[in-house]
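One chain is below:
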Amino acid sequence: MSRRPRDAGAPQDDDANASAGSQTVSRAMLLLRMVACGQERGVRLTDLVAMTGMNQPTVHRLLQTLVREGAIEQNPANRHYRIGPEIPVLALARSHRFPLMPQAEPYLTDLAQQVGDTVFLSVRHGTDSICVARKTGHYAIQVLSIEVGVRRPLGIGVSGIAMLSCMPPDQSDALINANARRIEVLKENPHEISRRVQVARETGIAHAPQGLMPGTSAVAVPVRGVDGQALAAITITAIAERLNERRLPQVVALMRERALWMVRRHAEMDHVA
């Protein structure tokens, strides 16, 4: 007499459970990244739904789980979600995760003093640009357009444009398309960003005559590794008259010089390691 194998359906059930579990983890990580974009001000539930493409019940359920775990917290005043206390504590385990930062710091400080305006260093992380350092200059008016830790989709801001310009067009377009939903939530046009990337590819700089704040301007140059790909981007923001047609070439020359020094130092440290 034949017998049906015991738990014949178990492997399929296990595979389905594993797939569902992986999807939940991926969705939770996506939410964490989107919440991180809000920094201290936080992000509204409706914006998280728009940026992730998930339905509202799913987003709300995942948020509540992350809140219980301390990974996310909700501001009781405005109900916005922001990164919770557990994430910074976990990050302490990898305090040297961005090795370019200590290597770049003296060059960023020197550049800020030479130019007189605010200097930023941003790195690529997946499909995002993250500001990892900021140095202020000596000029009376400093344009502090973003904070250290600001996370934006590549293509938003001149730093992301500069890093995208180091990629072949098909690769940069693919990243812009991957970020299209978030870019549109930020009231930007993905096709216009592709155009800006092409201009930066041709000129070697990403320049915004009108910066994030009225009356300001910004310019960025990529920090290219030995393979030609962007390790980071150096950005300077200033009141518009300080990045006019006469002064801009001088500022860009100083930025490119420091970018080259950073790459040389980075290569030396890699060789020692």
About this structure: The chain has two domains: 15-91, 100-271. The two ends are 67 Å apart (CA to CA).
